[in-house]
Predict the structure.
Amino acid sequence: MPTVNVFKDVLFKALGREYSTEEFEELCFEYGIELEDETSEQEMVKKEQGEEKAKGKSNRGIYRIDVPANRYDLLCAEGLSRALKVYVGNAKPPVYKLVQPAGGKVQKITVLPETAQIRPHLVCAVLRGITFDQDTYDSFIELQDKLHNNICRKRTLVAIGTHDLDTLQGPFTYEALAPKDIKFVPLNQTKQMNAEELMTFYESDRKLSKFLHIIRDSPVYPVIYDSNRTVLSLPPIINSNHSKITLETKNVFIECTATDITKARVVLNTIVAMFSQYCAEPFAVEPVEIATPNSTSTHRTPDISSRAVEATVGYINKSIGIHITADEVVKYLAKMSLNATLSSSRKSVTVSVPITRSDILHACDVMEDVAIAYGFNKIAKTVPRSITVGAPFPLNKLADFVRRELALSGYTEVLPLILCSHDENYEWLRRTDNGEAVKLANPQTIEFQVVRTSLIQGVLKTISSNKAVALPIKVFEVSDVVFKDESRERKSRNQRNMCVVFASKTSAFETVHGILDRIMAMLNVKLVSPDAAQDGYFIRESDNPTYFPGRCAEVVHKGVSIGHLGIVHPEVLQKFEVPFPCTALEINIEPFL
């Protein structure tokens, strides 16, 4: 959970009263957040850097508050105090609105096609007539840092740039240029440098060095210019010193470049919702017109319209375990800054979700807010209507049993990813694509294109990454593979497989065969002859392209093939960069339930 540092005096002023530590801790608990600590800047520096460094630091009281990771509106003092004021009944939720600039001309920014190579999306807004003091300025900067570390995934998905609009001249352009062609003075620096020099300059920077990898290897870097070709920012690395925000800034231009347009909109909405309260007209936001490539029309951001989410009163009562009326549901939602209206039948509510509550996606989220407002401590304890005895899921119990036997046999369990590339699932295993794999519609990387249909590729990748380990390498995995299945509701089915790989200087067919016999013996499955009509298993010669010809066997259980074992084909080992022979076994263990 993110931790927000809030000055006690600022928070109490916003709430309209002072709280004792016990009272405020109880208020936080009721609202679903947690007071982690009461401290000061001096105490924090003393704890982290020593008593000497703490000298001269402020002794002003600070609350450190843990907030839910998906409540981006609570990541600053403004949002936290506003939510608590509404919760205790001292205020109503604000109404956000878009306004035209005094001159009537909306700022415009053009996105050039080249940006699709690096960070294709952009959203912008303007806050007019804003008034900063030191506390609000620090909160403005800290919110951006919190968002960068949270929803922005350390700037990989979204990068925020804020600028003093009075130092710039629109219209703006969002471009992607070669690093040598981008020249500007970075924030808090005095020397002009190009983007290549900037990357080298910030390699040793404690904060910014963590973000250089995001664009460093790209042939083009994203950059935003005004009409005078003055650089605003080099996202996601740093802003220009020219448009630096100060305490005297009155008009703020906000731009968010992104690889994920949905998260970019959430981030922009969060910033304007939190700090538009300091504008000359509170909660008024000025839109920016964005011209996107390959489009004859333009659109404006931010979109501050609310969303509608519906939930039935019966579902809310049943899920929480209470009995309240529809009117009470509306009243409790109002405490959580949510306006709701009743249906004509009074059996459901339609919630108008504001831009601050991107966490509300489903009726269950509405139910959760009603539970918080009602009070968890007020929910009556009840005895379950039915008494049951817990038991392991049979398939998981079987899988754990197999894992234990393999571990006792000296094998180490590995846990590769369930997604892999198309080539790893087929070509690298010398298999043809028969259409049985579930494919991702929009894979973000070539490494995650399909859901695996076997375990062996993940185990071989693990061995490849651990070539320095002393031989033999004895590893296994017991996990799910996925196949298309049109007969199922989800058009796919899971299958629990077991895979064992023995890597050494020589092949070890007999060793892996022994592991198969051991597992079968522990499962009380007998080895039978191929012509015997018994409930058992046997192996027979098989031709599987993943394995070396003449060194592959098929495992048959009750007359049905459940897998293969054999010496892995050299071409497969070459693809996975495994330099020594490997012998593998992979079977479906579900028939043994």
